[in-house]
Amino acid sequence: MPAAVPSVATIADRLGAMRSRLDVLGARHVTIVAVTKAFPADVIRAAVEAGCSAIGENYAQELVAKSSVLEALAARRPDVHFIGHVQSNKVRPLAGTVDVWETLDRPAIVDRVARAAPGARVMVQVNATGEETKSGCRPGDAAALVDRARQGGLDVTGLMTMGPTSGDLDRCRSAFRAVRTLADELGLASCSMGMSGDYELAVAEGSTHIRVGTMLFGERHRAE
């Protein structure tokens, strides 16, 4: 069962608290990507009314089901970030809805997005922790993927990564620092790093985009 949608006032209060904390951290520039997975489509409308300018979705089928709400928002439509593993057969159905593809991690998916969404904004996902359960290319393969995406006409804005499943702070810091360094070496301005539990650490290591859901919308009530 989808989780209940919090009120606009509740989301606005939580968003305001996060922005205040980012100000304290000297990170007013950081974009908050509001992760709406497992919530009904109305959460997008509520998030926009509360002041969110970017939303993130993990699952293709769920995003397609919410596309009518996005269309109805018209000029207020937020940027849509796809932040889940991209399956090749899902690229075309998503091409008209996704604004930023954050999880390009292999040549085949780079080529598929380039064909289906020419000129799209993309990020290359890096597996900085070496965990087999995580998607992402090896750090040493990132440069080749960035080059391939650029040659395909895509607008590569940055890199994306996730911290370790264990939540170990030292490993988390090391992963985020490595990806920020790699982005700088590749001349990329953006890093999408950090979620509800580790966003402050990510910001300290140079994140420009944080992906948060629980802190804005509360707990989800289905398996993730």
Question: What are the key terms here?
Answer:
TIM Barrel; alpha/beta; 224 residues
Fold and architecture overview:
The protein is an alpha/beta fold. The chain has a single domain (8-215), classed as Alpha-Beta Barrel (TIM Barrel). It is built from nine helices and eight strands. It has helices spanning 8-24, 42-50, 60-73, 91-94, 107-116, 142-151, 169-185, 199-204, 214-217, and strands spanning 31-35, 54-57, 79-82, 100-104, 121-125, 155-160, 190-192, 209-212. An eight-stranded parallel beta sheet has the order 7-6-5-4-3-2-1-8. Helix 1 packs across helix 2. The longest helix is centred in the N-terminal third of the chain and has 17 residues, at 8-24. The chain is globular, with a radius of gyration of 17 Å. The two termini are 12 Å apart.
Write the layout of secondary structure elements.
Blueprint: H1 8-24, E1 31-35, H2 42-50, E2 54-57, H3 60-73, E3 79-82, H4 91-94, E4 100-104, H5 107-116, E5 121-125, H6 142-151, E6 155-160, H7 169-185, E7 190-192, H8 199-204, E8 209-212, H9 214-217
Parallel strand pairs: 1-2, 1-8, 2-3, 3-4, 4-5, 5-6, 6-7
**Cα end-to-end separation:** 12 Å
Could you tell me the strand content as a percent range?
15-25%
In terms of quaternary structure, the protein is single chain
Query: Which percent bin holds the helix content?
Result: 40-55%
Alpha-beta classification: alpha/beta
CATH topology: TIM Barrel
Q: How many structural domains are formed by the residues?
A: 1
H/I helix tally: 9
SSE series: HEHEHEHEHEHEHEHEH
The CATH architecture is Alpha-Beta Barrel
- What is the CATH top level name? Alpha Beta
